[in-house]
Amino acid sequence: MRCVVLDDYQGVALSNADWSGLDVVVQREHLDDPASVLADAECVVIMRERTPFTASLFSRLPRLRLLITSGMRNASIDLEAARSAGVTVCGTGSAKTPPTELTWALILGLARHIAVENAAFHSGGPWQSTVGVDLAGKTLGLLGFGNLGRAVGRIGKAFGMDVVAWSPNLSVDRVEPEGVRLASSLHDLFGQSDFASIHLVLSDRSRGLVDAAALACLKPSAFLVNTSRAAIVDSFALLEVLRDRRIAGAGLDVFEVEPLPLTDSLRGLPNVLATPHLGYVTETNYRTYFQEAVEDIHAFLRGTPVREL
Questions:
Q1: Catalytic amino acids?
Q2: What is the CATH number of domain 97-274?
Q3: What pLDDT, in 10s, does the model give residues 285-300?
């Protein structure tokens, strides 16, 4: 089976699994239009939402039989179009700890001005130019309280933070066992937060949920952290509050266009601490992704697909 691995930015797909017996081609650079590279592909392995698989793309890939994504959810795959094209779609496991850890890397980086002080250290700039923000006693607001939100909240409690949470269907009985308070609304959550962190799944209900009105509830000293999905936040409204310094800053790991264009205004804002969608990018996750992708391929070839989406 001819298999193409897309968007292997770090060049690690082949070293993280045993691909022997398979005809594998690895594409390291992101392609806006991958159809030509995939013309002969019977199987494609994609990394998260780096390359969307739309109805239009499926229609241009008549030889495609199997599409594998890392993780068990991928909003950029048109599953109905895949079924119509006769393409089986399978996923892999994915650990919850890496995005939790990156969320805290961003929170701590913002609170202690790590990027600024590190740049000054290497450039010979001033020795101690910033004053850090204490976490103990501050309020951590969690938009979303699933597995990731709960994990982030537990760490916040360990830092001595007051943790409050909200999502559309969240109830008191789910937050109280964790020692977490329930906000009455999104605006109430943001109004209380010194650090507001987003942990919702992107859906029709959550898309654009954090709009200009919600962002206006944040204090000028507050920070917004998003390691979930960019489309949950109104990108124009966020750019405005950051540019006008109506909030202290943002820690961002997700963007509506990835890779983010070099001309994007977010790149020029000093109060943005950003990483290039690294939330899931760890050694353990990559081994799981690629080893289970190979398992998916062999199971499909045996006629018994596993982990179907």
A1: 229, 258, 277
A2: 3.40.50.720
A3: 999 999 999 999 999 9
